[in-house]
Amino acid sequence: MVQTDFESVYKEAFPFWNEITEAEREHICSNSVEKIFQKGENIHDSSECSGVILVRSGCLRVYMLSESGKDITLYRLYSGDMCILSASCVLKTITFDVFIDAEEDSSCYLISGPAFMKVSESNPKIKIFSLETAVSRFSDVMWVMQQILFMSMDKRLAIFLLDESSRTNSDIIALTHEQIARYMGSAREVVSRMLKYFASEGFVEVSRKGVKLLDRKGLRELAL
Amino acid sequence: MVQTDFESVYKEAFPFWNEITEAEREHICSNSVEKIFQKGENIHDSSECSGVILVRSGCLRVYMLSESGKDITLYRLYSGDMCILSASCVLKTITFDVFIDAEEDSSCYLISGPAFMKVSESNPKIKIFSLETAVSRFSDVMWVMQQILFMSMDKRLAIFLLDESSRTNSDIIALTHEQIARYMGSAREVVSRMLKYFASEGFVEVSRKGVKLLDRKGLRELAL
Questions:
Q1: Which residues of chain A are within 8 Å of residue B136 when distances are taken between CB atoms?
Q2: Is the pTM of this model over 0.80?
């Protein structure tokens, strides 16, 4: 069995790595596991403490879920990103629950919550790094909230299509209306209606393959 | 002129107070001012760094504002609460803007952002305290978001009325429908319609004085 070389990865990912003791580094590594998640698999489920997640490859989607099963995407995590909200046992001031799914096949390193917390408690730099990571997620969530509450749907959809296109480096957004609606915290009907309008304006072409961007300039003006 | 005794107040409010040097304490106190705000007065306005606010008495309302002027309450601060989101220069990871108004006549101590940051940079305990304060506001905001996105209006209004009643220790919620709607991030029409329904069910009585709670048990069942 090949031993996973956590150390070389943590060295890059954690700005505090060289400032903690050899024993602390060892403690974190020996309480780490590598996990592979299939696309669509649930990784973290509400209030349990799944530990600190470091994304190696793929994409994780962090979302809220209501009792009725409605969900809304808060943000996504890509290679190199750390998730601290999955380790609610580490930060006591986080009193809410999030859910995390693998949006693509993803490889992650998981550090156990208690092990991370032990080192964090004796080391203010780790604690500050963890809290700063959480606060920057706060900023992400505020942005989502702004979008949902205040922006008109045409603007939000234009931004979503442009973002998704640049992220996947493709003119075609290979998602169903249902999926787009879920990402945007909206309803399928609303997305379909708006896409029909976008198509009628020549901004996009809607087909079974997904949504093809035809007029980026037009979408960008809408997104302003 | 009577010198404000910041020190005796900060000693109670800040858990780190006894762990910083005499010179640091002096630096914070000499960069503090006492300010009185009238009910309705704007205290903090978007991205400027107003400094760290410690509420002595009264009530501050922290909210988001859209371009079109629509606003939504994120949380309120009462006596003893500290506001760090008004000092965006202190926490670099906060990239969003909030607005703060005095909801009642309020007395506050303001510590200048640069002064607080200077002491915070050399002192991990202050930094951790500031970040933890921000993260607990994150928890508040997530709760608001859950309410807005997922809960049905009858449930939200029932919770609001019960909370407000217990906070003010009164059966009468002396707010207009317009004000209630603003607090809840809803529209006046929606609140009026729902209150009419609540009145028809005998839960409340609506008059010019405000909303009187008649059937707490009924409201509590709705709020479940």
A1: 93, 95
A2: no
